[in-house]
Amino acid sequence: MLGPRRFGRLLALLAFVSILTLVAAMPAAAAVRPQEWHRYNIYEPLGPSHERLRCLTDTQWRCKYDTVPEPKLGFSNPNVIGTFIGTDVTGTWECPDWFPADICDSATRVISGVQTFIEPGRGELFSLDAVFIVTDDGALWDYFVDFAVCPWYPTFEQALTSPAECIFAPG
Q: What is the pTM of this model?
């Protein structure tokens, strides 16, 4: 027969093992993973600029958009920030016919949501439907639905040496 002390220890041990079992059984997708992408924006009125997108990526993506001063390159720091909130639609998303095949063929994750841009002190500039397409090379394509798709890269160095042009929808 177990005494009260041994019984208490046994209960504590069982609780600890139960918690470890639950944590081990949690899907890896439940872990929050911070990710960051960069863009060399050549378009006015914000260009040229170093844009940054920082995201927490788990079952829901929550991202913050801002610009980074680059005084050595003569880039200003436009006073615009943004957010994106979206969910994974990889299994159901269909790549538009006008997209370059390499984006569609290399897509590993697709997130659909709403992107909002704000000018501090003035409020919301605009919101739009957006889809983030992550490709197998680590790039992210920001698809402004039915308008354009623009490239983002894991580092700003990559952004400076890679194509910066957005691809616009026909028509």
A: 0.79
